[in-house]
């Protein structure tokens, strides 16, 4: 499989993909190694992952360069991602003892009722490319801490990063066969569905996730899905600093070229402040530089996948045909690399793809609304349910609206953010199950209920 640099379109590496035979071999080794790994004291496994975080930190400069070379992510954003992954590992390793240790729930005379958290076994992690460190860490770190073996399939667009993760986990002390890579694209992911893994943890698109869920349902094992979104924002008319909010929310929409699962994908602005907000928003987007992702001042690199250009152009054309207006951008940029102009569309409606389908690129639709009720009804008009955000000077106003929205994360005066302390979960077409937080630590375990009768 060729690895292509999306900024230059050059082949930067060629890797050997797995076959059913090599995967089977890896699986047999994983099965044996996992049994031994699970017997180690929890503290020892935690310490191994702490060493992994230290190695990420020590090698972050070269890891960021590799990430930029294969995904086109601007170097500064690649460094931020690695920093974010380290902070997530810190939270997970600091809190693992608390949530994975045996618990005495009730004691009555000689009767004790306890819970222990046993690993699932050898799990499969089929992953995405947009934040390979972050979405990877969400799964393989708590899975390893809990005593599982992991067959990790990096996305075909983040394979070199997957190889680095494998190298550093081994260097940190994860025994050789406890963590294995499945290298390749969709068909290799499909091969994993034919294996008897003890759980499937997927990050990627709704369509692939739905397919995986259907296949795995036959197996009666856990299947968690972290999928896409069409995340809405509402800017209410009482915000005191319109400029600051316009700038922060433009970043929420366009960071990582809009290729974040929790990117702001549609914005509703109260009509009282609409014009002013829009002016600042457009100014901010135009101020950001498009270019070589290795350059320090570049905010927009290329898209990671060439095919996404067709989806973005289809959304723009559909919107324009139905009466939308372009404030900037709208097409691919000529020349080498998968570049797309930062694009802002107004006069949009929910009859347009841009307001209904995930864009996953540097493109946003902005609508004026007359009231909180209208904003709420538009925000809820979606098949997805990953995040939703409201900017207002009143916490009560935000909370009362956010309670009515069926999304896994609710943001007041912020957007496009994830924290390891709280669950990361999607609803409806955005997924099933949670990673991060205590829930994300326990997601890789099966609880055993102990009913112990007798004196100790
Ligand atoms: P994708 O669905 O195209 O691919 C994801 C993974 O699935 C890849 O490793 C791919 O090789 C594999 N795959 C493809 N077809 C398969 C099949 N038939 N069987 C098994 N595996 C298969 O998604 P992507 O382009 O890598 O990622 C982008 C999507 O991921 C976006 O929709 C984004 O919103 C979503 N995402 C969600 C989160 C979240 O936390 N909710 C995080 C990151 C990305």
TrEMBL record:
Alphabetical list of InterPro entries matching this protein: Ald_DH/histidinol_DH (IPR016161), Ald_DH_C (IPR016163), Ald_DH_CS_GLU (IPR029510), Ald_DH_N (IPR016162), Aldehyde_DH_dom (IPR015590)
Aldehyde dehydrogenase domain sequence ranges: 2-449
Active site: 226
Keyword Kinase: no
Keywords linked to the UniProt accession: Oxidoreductase
Gene3D superfamilies associated with the record: Aldehyde Dehydrogenase, Chain A, domain 1, Aldehyde Dehydrogenase, Chain A, domain 2
Transmembrane segments: none
PANTHER family on file: ALDEHYDE DEHYDROGENASE-RELATED
Family: Belongs to the aldehyde dehydrogenase family.
Name the record gives this protein: Aldehyde dehydrogenase family protein
Biological classification of the source: Bacteria, Pseudomonadati, Bacteroidota, Sphingobacteriia, Sphingobacteriales
């Amino acid at each position: 499989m060729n690895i292509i640099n999306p900024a230059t379109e050059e082949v930067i590496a060629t890797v050997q993909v797995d076959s059913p035979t090599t995967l089977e071999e890896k699986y047999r080794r994983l099965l044996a190694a996992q049994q031994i790994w699970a017997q180690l004291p929890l503290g020892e496994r935690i310490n191994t992952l702490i060493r992994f975080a230290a190695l990420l930190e020590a090698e972050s400069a070269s890891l960021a360069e590799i990430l930029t070379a294969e995904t086109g992510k601007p170097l500064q954003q690649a460094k931020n991602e690695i920093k974010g992954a380290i902070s997530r590992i810190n939270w997970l390793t600091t809190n693992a003892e608390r949530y994975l240790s045996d618990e005495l729930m009730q004691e009555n005379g000689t009767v004790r009722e306890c819970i222990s958290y046993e690993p699932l076994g050898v799990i499969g992690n089929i992953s995405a490319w947009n934040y390979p460190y972050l979405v990877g860490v969400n799964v393989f770190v708590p899975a390893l801490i809990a005593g599982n073996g992991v067959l990790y399939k990096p996305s075909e667009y983040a394979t070199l990063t997957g190889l680095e993760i494998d190298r550093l986990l081994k260097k940190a002390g994860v025994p050789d066969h406890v963590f294995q890579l499945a290298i390749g694209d969709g068909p290799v992911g499909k091969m994993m569905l034919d294996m008897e893994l003890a759980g499937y943890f997927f990050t990627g698109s709704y369509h692939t996730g739905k397919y995986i869920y259907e296949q795995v349902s036959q197996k009666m094992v856990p299947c968690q899905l972290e999928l896409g979104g069409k995340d809405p924002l509402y800017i209410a008319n009482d915000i005191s600093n319109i400029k600051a909010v316009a700038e922060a929310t433009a970043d929420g929409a366009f960071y990582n070229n809009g290729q974040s699962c929790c990117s702001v994908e549609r914005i509703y602005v109260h009509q009282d402040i609409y014009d002013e907000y829009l002016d600042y928003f457009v100014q901010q987007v135009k101020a950001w530089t498009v270019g070589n992702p290795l350059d320090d001042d570049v905010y927009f690199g290329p898209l990671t996948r060439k095919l996404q250009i067709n989806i973005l152009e289809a959304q723009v054309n559909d919107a324009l045909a139905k009466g939308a207006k372009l404030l900037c951008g709208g097409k691919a940029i000529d020349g080498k690399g998968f570049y797309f102009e930062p694009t802002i569309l107004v006069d949009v409606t929910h009859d347009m793809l841009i307001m209904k389908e995930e864009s996953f690129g540097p493109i946003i639709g902005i609508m004026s609304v007359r009231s909180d009720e209208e904003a709420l009804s538009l925000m809820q008009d979606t098949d997805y349910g990953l995040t939703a955000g409201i900017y207002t000077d009143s916490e009560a106003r935000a909370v009362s609206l956010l309670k009515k929205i069926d999304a896994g994360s609710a943001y007041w005066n912020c957007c496009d953010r994830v924290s390891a302390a709280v669950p990361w979960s999607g609803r409806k077409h955005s997924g099933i199950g949670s990673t991060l937080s205590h829930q994300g630590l326990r997601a890789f375990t099966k609880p055993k209920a102990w009913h112990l009768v007798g004196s100790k």
